[in-house]
Design a protein that fits this description.
Distance between the termini: 81 Å
Structural class: alpha+beta
Strand content: 25-35%
Shape: elongated
Number of helices: 6
Largest sheet: 8 strands, antiparallel, barrel
């Protein structure tokens, strides 16, 4: 057989083998590309995964992780497919023995697993992530304890305690009124700010939490990374107001109370809270 024929046959065979091994790019892109949210979270512990630039070798991903505030980001990292069908991809963390594995399951959801060979721990029902998350924080230099592992679904998810009524802060009518006032992203931020909360009495020596000067109850919200994160007042007439800190440091204010509606006049507890907030961020 002539040499040029052998070369042509070899090239054709190599191409056939390559196509057999690599997944079809278009199909794989449809399976992976988009924004994924971790299921089973409260808003303040959520994780958002974005995947793009999918080809038959892998994809680029970014992840934003929350512990009240944004606690960590993974930006523009590249995961490689490790199976012939393009259903499993892996990112190897440089200079460590840690990996992040992405697996598409039969339902079309994604299972994400962070694994560090340097760590051995036993998962329990009460403590499934803490040993792992401490290593994730160490490996990636996150600002607070967060975890990467979980099941992700493409598009929106329903969060645990998706409003302040479900979180046990306000009654159902007050919670609904507050949610209706603000855009979805601000309401999500409000829930981030109420990872922890307390009823604040007007004076330390009072046993009653009710603030008689404004006629209502005052709730301070905080999270793992921020002591003064938001304030909500539930007035006796059923109206509500809220001041919410945003991640850029600004504050937004909402109210349906007939006295404190437009923000020109704000309740004294809100004014005091803003002073505490400014003092905290200026430390």
């Amino acid at each position: 057989m002539k040499n040029w024929v052998r070369r042509v046959l070899s090239a054709v065979l190599a191409m056939v083998l390559l196509l057999a091994v690599l997944p079809a790019t278009g199909c794989v892109k449809d399976d992976w590309e988009g924004t994924w949210n971790r299921t089973g979270d409260s808003t303040f512990s959520r994780a958002i995964l974005r995947i793009r630039d999918v080809n038959n070798k892998g994809f680029t991903f970014s992840m934003t992780l929350y512990n009240g505030n944004i606690a960590g980001r993974l930006t523009q990292l590249r995961a490689a497919f490790i199976d012939r069908a393009g259903k499993v991809a892996e990112y190897e963390v440089p200079d460590s023995r840690a990996t992040i594995t992405f697996t598409l399951n039969e339902k079309g959801d994604m299972d994400v697993l962070f694994y560090d060979e340097a760590v051995s721990f036993t998962e329990t029902e009460d403590n499934p992530y803490s040993s792992s998350s401490s290593m994730e924080t160490t490996v990636f230099g996150f600002d607070a304890l967060v975890f990467i592992t979980g099941q992700f679904t493409r598009g929106e998810v329903e969060y645990i305690n998706g409003n302040l009524y479900e979180a046990g802060v306000l009654n159902e009518e007050q919670s609904a009124a507050l949610q209706e006032m603000m855009p979805d992203e601000v309401h999500t931020r409000l829930l981030d700010c109420f990872q922890l909360w307390e009823v604040v009495p007007p004076k330390p020596d009072l046993n009653n939490d009710h603030d008689d000067e404004i006629g209502g109850y005052v709730y301070h919200g905080s999270n793992t990374m921020q002591k003064y994160a938001a304030i909500v007042i539930a007035f006796d007439d059923g109206s509500v107001c809220a001041a919410v800190s945003k991640t850029d440091g600004s504050i937004v204010y909402y109210s349906n109370n007939h006295i404190y509606t437009d923000g020109q006049l704000t309740p004294l507890p809100v004014n005091k809270w803003i002073q505490l907030y400014n003092a905290e961020i200026n430390k």
